[in-house]
């Protein structure tokens, strides 16, 4: 069920935050764009959108946003990262190494599908969430190369983990906000009430 009290925050520094807002709007979940760390107090969960992780990282340092997100997650609030957002959440980033929030025990390799496969639509399986093949859009996507022991793999495509969860943290290497399928966002919204 959707928590009516607190909206879902969507980090709106850069990237495709507007499409997450559109998806939440469709589902009927309240949302709020987040530009400053101080705004996190008013939201029950947070989405880190796709875009360019290096650009978002620069902002994290300047505005104290990185530390604020770490505190937010430490308080048990759900955080969902898609593509660049998943890269930001990881404990280890490869190709090249870069700073991260370290909230999700995975090693993730940036731009890992190669230049020629800049973008693709694939079908994947999320057996616990959907009884149908899930359409997954990958855009200069990363690949999760290592999954820590406390991390559950909820979705796979081509045998690779593409949707993972560690307690209140959820991450997808693809863009569920780019398809009509609301399953992944609904799953995240359920976490706000648990
Ligand atoms: N390649 C981007 C990065 O490394 C991620 C791309 C995306 O979010 N679609 O941050």
Report on this model:
- This protein is of the alpha/beta class and 194 residues long.
- Helices cover 24% and strands 31% of the residues.
- The chain has five helices and twelve strands.
- The chain has a seven-stranded mixed sheet with strand order 2-1-3-4-12-11-10. A three-stranded mixed sheet has the order 5-6-9. A two-stranded antiparallel sheet has the order 7-8.
- The longest helix has 11 residues, at 17-27.
- The radius of gyration is 15 Å and the shape is globular.
- It binds glutamine (GLN).
- Glutamine binds at residues 50-53, 83-84, 87, 110-111, 139-140.
Compact description:
The chain is α/β, with parallel strands linked by helices and 194 residues long.
Biggest sheet record: 7 strands, mixed
Structural class estimated from helices and strands: alpha/beta
Portion of residues in beta strands equals: 25-35%
| Overall number of strands | 12
